[in-house]
């Protein structure tokens, strides 16, 4: 039986227990030429395999344990590895900053949510993605929380999964502004973190309590936050045919 070595800080174990991988974090997979050149220099120095990951990152594979710390120093970055029961980095497409098909901005929103939530301890691993249109290049419909840009704003999806219990996410609400997305996102995270069981993904929590209760609890939290500075009450209308939240009507309190 092969005995696994202690994993160095900021490294990921591989099949071969003698080697490790590191993944310098690149928000949204966007970087300048200088950063890309630095990564290439480190890969060349240590004769590493370079892997473009499905999470919009670049993994450097093949480091010996005693070289991991120095490799991070060569990159000019602090060692880190976001794994386990945590919120992963937010995946986002280029949005209407670059893509002619995108309907909404994604880079600023993606970086905001990434800065706020990446690395946060959660009941189970949390995957989030944002797509600027319904082509869904970042696959938001199979993420714990997905956001899709439309002509009229952003749709928020919850409970998707691409794992062994694969499912398409429920649509929580449609056509919201970026500001509203941030508030609703925080409410989703708060309710999930306070009510999910250990290792229970968002979709499994929804299956356990029901989408109606999940919506009600989340939007109660949204109301409470909004009421701190906006004296309105909010009514939510539901589509009868597919149980999706389709809009908001506001009434002055």
TrEMBL record:
InterPro entries: NasD-like (IPR052034), NiRdtase/SiRdtase_haem-b_fer (IPR005117), Nit/Sulf_reduc_fer-like_dom_sf (IPR036136), NO2/SO3_Rdtase_4Fe4S_dom (IPR006067), NO2/SO3_Rdtase_4Fe4S_sf (IPR045854), NO2/SO3_Rdtase_FeS/sirohaem_BS (IPR006066), Sulphite_reductase_assimil (IPR017220). One of its GO terms (molecular function) is 4 iron, 4 sulfur cluster binding. Keywords: 4Fe-4S, Heme, Iron, Iron-sulfur, Metal-binding, Oxidoreductase. Gene3D superfamilies: Sulfite Reductase Hemoprotein, domain 1 (3.30.413.10). Residues 86-218 form the Nitrite/sulphite reductase 4Fe-4S domain. It comes from the Bacteria. Residues 14-76 form the Nitrite/Sulfite reductase ferredoxin-like domain. PANTHER family: NITRITE REDUCTASE (NADH) LARGE SUBUNIT. This is Nitrite reductase. It comes from Anoxybacter fermentans.
């Amino acid at each position: 039986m092969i005995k696994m070595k202690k994993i160095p800080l900021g490294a990921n174990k591989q099949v071969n227990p003698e080697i490790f991988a590191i993944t310098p974090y690149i928000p949204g997979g966007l970087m300048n030429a200088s950063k890309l050149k630095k990564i290439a220099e480190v890969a060349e120095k240590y004769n590493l395999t370079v892997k473009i990951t499905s999470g919009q990152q670049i993994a450097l594979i093949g480091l010996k344990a005693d070289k991991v710390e120095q490799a991070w120093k060569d990159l000019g970055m602090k060692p880190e590895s976001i794994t386990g029961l945590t919120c992963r980095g937010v995946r986002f497409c280029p949005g209407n900053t670059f893509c002619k098909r995108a309907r909404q901005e994604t880079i600023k929103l993606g970086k905001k949510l990434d800065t706020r939530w990446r690395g946060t301890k959660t009941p189970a691993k949390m995957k989030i993605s944002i797509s600027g249109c319904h082509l869904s290049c970042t696959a938001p419909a199979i993420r714990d929380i997905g956001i899709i840009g439309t002509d009229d704003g952003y749709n928020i999806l919850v409970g998707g999964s691409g794992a062994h219990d694969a499912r398409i996410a429920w649509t929580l609400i449609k056509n919201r502004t970026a500001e509203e997305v941030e508030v609703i996102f925080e409410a989703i995270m708060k309710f999930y973190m306070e009510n999910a069981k250990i290792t229970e993904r968002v979709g499994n929590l929804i299956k356990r309590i029901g989408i109606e209760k999940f919506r009600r609890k989340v939007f109660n939290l949204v109301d409470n936050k909004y009421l701190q500075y906006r004296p309105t009450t909010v009514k939510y209308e539901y589509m009868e045919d597919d149980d999706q939240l389709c809009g908001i009507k506001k009434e002055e309190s």
